[in-house]
């Protein structure tokens, strides 16, 4: 009963026409930011997260505390728990699901392949099953990944480009997710929006990602490993700042339910949409390192090695014209500015505030 009360409180809407959103993976990097942004404009938000230990669980707990201070409650549980999901939908008539829970990371798939199947396939299906039977049926927005473009080296990537050559199990499960969600759209009329995020970075980010671990190692005077592609070509990523990604997510939620009229009457077929959310300006990894060096006022000890065949792709670059047109998506933060904000957060979060300032 205590639990129900917290869920109801968290789900309260404070603006007219506000949404009621279940955010899975709410203790994660993107989930925390999306939840805060929705809550701040008056939407009802309930989080769900299993607080797994893929990376430092204390960071997830700190994000939970941040959300709690803004009256967002995170239910601790797994998206594979059908009974828990049914109970949540019983307590709250969610208008939208923002599905961000997943086993992320490309390289970890070689250590623990089953965790990808558990969260990105089985968990996705459980959540879709609950969503398609819920009344009202929520619009379903979820995180796919730029990794679905796999070995395709024709850049920039457009949504209609081939995605049948995944380079990692992570990518394969995201691609499978795009096909699985399509069947729920086709059979049950569930409104689906898949968002292909391109290397998201920023405050409260993920410790397993390069920009984060480089920062940690540089500050601790430890070497960093920089991968180099074939023929000594630098790797590059279309790094996208978290606030831009959040705007894309919110824009997707706001436009997702458009084909469903009031009283659950459908005005047309439910949409199945896929969008790239990137920054359209790839930056090489050595440039990323030099920006970090500048902001940290420290030199990195670089170990440059040939990229092992571990699932990484050499280059990503998003064509975002669809998202611009249909979601009003417009990234505004370049890597210099975004990393400055990240470094400032990092120094303060990890208590480096004595004498160390950011340029
Ligand atoms: P994250 O790991 O910080 O967040 C995911 C959260 O989901 C974690 O808090 C985790 O505890 C939770 N979770 C995992 N499995 C779960 C399960 N079975 N049940 C309940 N909770 C579970 O990752 P993120 O960077 O915030 O990524 C969010 C989404 O965006 C993921 O789907 C990810 O695959 C996708 N994505 C991220 C990036 C990026 O650069 N960050 C790029 C492309 C796609």
UniProtKB/TrEMBL annotation:
<keyword id="KW-0413">Isomerase</keyword>
<dbReference type="GO" id="GO:0050378">
    <property type="term" value="F:UDP-glucuronate 4-epimerase activity"/>
</dbReference>
<comment type="similarity">
    <text>Belongs to the NAD(P)-dependent epimerase/dehydratase family.</text>
</comment>
<keyword id="KW-0732">Signal</keyword>
<dbReference type="Pfam" id="PF01370">
    <property type="entry name" value="Epimerase"/>
</dbReference>
<keyword id="KW-0472">Membrane</keyword>
<dbReference type="InterPro" id="IPR001509">
    <property type="entry name" value="Epimerase_deHydtase"/>
</dbReference>
<keyword id="KW-0812">Transmembrane</keyword>
<comment type="subunit">
    <text>Homodimer.</text>
</comment>
<keyword id="KW-0520">NAD</keyword>
<feature type="domain" description="NAD-dependent epimerase/dehydratase">
    <location>
        <begin position="21"/>
        <end position="255"/>
    </location>
</feature>
<dbReference type="InterPro" id="IPR036291">
    <property type="entry name" value="NAD(P)-bd_dom_sf"/>
</dbReference>
<protein>
    <recommendedName>
        <fullName>UDP-glucuronate 4-epimerase</fullName>
        <ecNumber>5.1.3.6</ecNumber>
    </recommendedName>
</protein>
<dbReference type="GO" id="GO:0032580">
    <property type="term" value="C:Golgi cisterna membrane"/>
</dbReference>
<keyword id="KW-1133">Transmembrane helix</keyword>
